[in-house]
Design brief:
Keywords: DNA-binding, Transcription, Transcription regulation
Distance between the termini: 55 Å
Oligomer: single chain
Organism: Cupriavidus numazuensis
Radius of gyration: 24 Å
Pfam families: HTH_1, LysR_substrate
Order of helices and strands: HHHEEHHEHEHEEHEHEHEHHEEHH
Helix content: 40-55%
Shape: globular
Largest sheet: 7 strands, mixed
Family: Belongs to the LysR transcriptional regulatory family.
Protein name: HTH-type transcriptional regulator ArgP
Number of domains: 3
Amino acid sequence: MDARLKQAVAVGRFGSFSKAAEAVNVTQSAVTKSVAELERRLGFPIFIRTSRGVVPTSEGRAFLERASRLIADTDELLSGAQRTDPFSGSLRIGIFPTLLEWVLARPIEALVKRHPRLLLDITSGTKERGLQLLDQGDIDVAIGLESIFDDKARFKLEFIAPISAGIFVRRGHPLLALSAPVAEDIARYDMVLSGQIWDLSVYPMLSQIYGKTDAIRFHKIENFSLQCTVVENTDAIGFVDHAMARTDYFQSRFVVIPGLEEVTRGGIVCAVREQWSAKPGVAALVDILQQVHANGMLDSNIQNRLFGHECAAVPAEVAPRRT
């Protein structure tokens, strides 16, 4: 492993060339020279120098993230720990798009109990970033919608569960007074969507409802509990998967608009690179995911998923803070 990578990662971790030099047991000038050589070779600055230390640039942050993973992989490979316990070491899981994070709530609980020596490294982001990280080997397994991996023969997929979504509103919403709302009725109201629309099949539906007007108003909110908060307190409309819509919690607050119970349909999968042998931890994760969601409806651990929403109620009058 190139010593310059370790030195650059140490600078990023400590935010200081001097502290990084102490950590890796070399001189500060050696660390400064190593980083300068890397920056020349990469063609972009890794760090911004300030009077209070250094901070990574946007390109530098991505470089340091990947370098850290390469160092961790090398250390794990040379340690030989997996020869005695195949479920020791790191398991790097990606969830794309971010709004699917709740799919892991109960499976992760089971995984860490079953394999306590497994170290989890969970990341999330856009669908495009997910494909990039999986292609580069920066994650061991990606969890996402099957449509993300369409025509991607380089990946091996394991089906986890179906997912479908309808359009929902708060109880008492004006749309519920209509016997059969049409696109023109729905288009009068703002819509709540995640920053990353969860499936491409949503686009044709949005086009059908809103047409090509420039007056479309969207709340872009990744977290589902915060989406619920906006829908419950306004006339905005949102998307909900069927597992959630069937719960007592949801039905006490919201209604799926009749006739729009299933505007999108897809599947959730785990993806690994076809040409690489998956870690034992990946197989264990897939097995647990399939067991948890074996009933065909996503067992999304509703309490975890809505914890923020349940705690979000704010009194109409808040007592002034005492000083």
